[in-house]
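Two quick folds needed for the group meeting slides. Do the first one here.
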Amino acid sequence: MPPSELDDHWLYQCDGIVVDPSAHLLERDGRAQPVEPKVYTVLLTLLRQAGKVVDKDTLLDAAWGHRCVTPGVLSHAISQLRRALGDSALHPRYIATVHTIGYRFIGEVHRRSRHTPVPTEPSPGGRVRWHRGHLLSNFSFRLATR
């Protein structure tokens, strides 16, 4: 079964980051983070092999196929991902550079079924953040007491 079919059943979570491959969704702290499709493919490739070094050729092939592209395209994609994830090249929390070889997703990744609701998380100020299935909608409200 191709990786895209496998991903239809999963959400990837790491800290406040949620990635839903079937909806092409990247959220950070409940806010959508738009990234280009090729950049998103690089992210998914790293998430699928979290903790392992993924070489540059593998990432280039996953996102750009057998086209002739320069390694600078991958560097630009990693920069966009770091920005979207709130990460830093100097002090990485999510994407570490393995010099001359490739990159490694170093955050603790949890895979959850798309069909299992994620537990409700209370947040400051009496707000509640709801995540249900793959819709990942945020509804904020205050509880009124009488």
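Then this one, please, same format:
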Amino acid sequence: MSTRVALPTEQRLGLLAWAALVVLQLVWHAWLFPPQTIPVWLVLAITVIPLLLPLLAIRDPRRALLWVGILSLFYFCHGIAEGWSSSSERWLALVEIVLTVLLIGTLGAGVRRPRGPGTTTSL
């Protein structure tokens, strides 16, 4: 018998955005626009390894998503800088920005607020 619990939709979406961000880094820096002055492996080490580190916490998907959400702030800043400065890579930067916003948004969507005597549901 399996005791596996289905992940909520926002966590599945967050994991999908995380995986897409890893794939984007590989495609961007190793295939479409490889670096001209430094080795490709070094660029991939800088861009991909930080995204893989939260896999150590994958036993709890919420914790892994939290860590990758924190790390994705760097990728958001990278996307803004590249989108602003490099017209040839702007479309990749926009994809990076969308993925990081989606990833961070899934963290907020997954927060459960307590319902107590003093809480209201309307604004």
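Slide caption for protein two: The chain has a mean pLDDT of 89.
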